[in-house]
Amino acid sequence: MEQKKDIRKRILKKRSQLSEKLWEEYSASIATLLISHPIFEEAEIVYGYMPIRNEVDTLPILEEAFRLHKKVALPKVLSKTEMQFFEVESFQELTPGAYGILEPQTEHPAMAEEGLMLMPGACFDRELHRIGYGGGYYDRFLEAHPHFTTAALAFTLQCLEQIPWDPHDIRPEYLFTEQEIRSRT
């Protein structure tokens, strides 16, 4: 079986070749599916992320959470092994941080131990195993905070039949693509 790093590289290259038109169209479809799903509707706090390198556009999802007066928390990388989420009330509270990703300026950590956690990733399979970007940030965070409802956002081109995984890899409960919602529950 192909190694994680090789799969990651291959799939990220495919994702980077997605046209802007398709990226916008697919991202909008994914946002619509998530926003109308009970896991979003019932969430009091949404732990999101700022999209990079042609990831699914999370901005419409986060904007809808702000509009509905839900709490929104975004990650900040604190070290090579740790990230923490901080509550924000608008995108104006963000500045470029680690890896050039927009991060919260605030020093008010999000304290909720449950809510909706949106997970990025490079690749997923039918069993919702996930290959991230290799840093292990989400695996470590969710291992320490296991009570979140987890939902990954990805384009169908990022989905394979089977990928290698390790016991410490955290699988999302849901995967939203432009074509379907997959669930392991």
Largest sheet features: 7 strands, mixed
Q: Which CATH architecture would you pick?
A: 3-Layer(aba) Sandwich
The string of secondary-structure elements, in order, is HHHEHEEEEEEEHEEE
How many structural domains does the protein architecture include? 1
CATH superfamily: NagB/RpiA/CoA transferase-like
- Helix/strand/pairing category: alpha/beta
What number is the mean pLDDT?
95
* Shape summary: globular
For the record, the CATH class is Alpha Beta
**Number of helical regions:** 5
Task: Give the helix level as a range of percent.
Answer: 25-40%
How is this structure best described in words?
Helix content is 27%, strand content 22%. The protein has 185 residues and is of the alpha/beta class. It has one domain: Rossmann fold, CATH 3.40.50.10420. The strands form three sheets. It has a seven-stranded mixed sheet with strand order 3-2-1-6-9-10-11. The model has no long low-confidence stretch (mean pLDDT 95). GO terms for molecular function: 5-formyltetrahydrofolate cyclo-ligase activity; ATP binding; metal ion binding. Keywords: ATP-binding, Ligase, Magnesium, Metal-binding, Nucleotide-binding.
Walk me through the topology.
Layout: H1 4-16, H2 20-35, H3 38-41, E1 45-47, H4 59-67, E2 71-77, E3 83-88, E4 94-96, E5 102-104, E6 116-119, E7 123-124, E8 130-131, H5 137-144, E9 149-153, E10 174-176, E11 181-183
Parallel strand pairs: 1-2, 1-6, 6-9, 9-10
Antiparallel strand pairs: 2-3, 4-5, 7-8, 10-11
Cofactor: Mg(2+)
GO molecular function, one term: metal ion binding
Organism: Mediterraneibacter butyricigenes
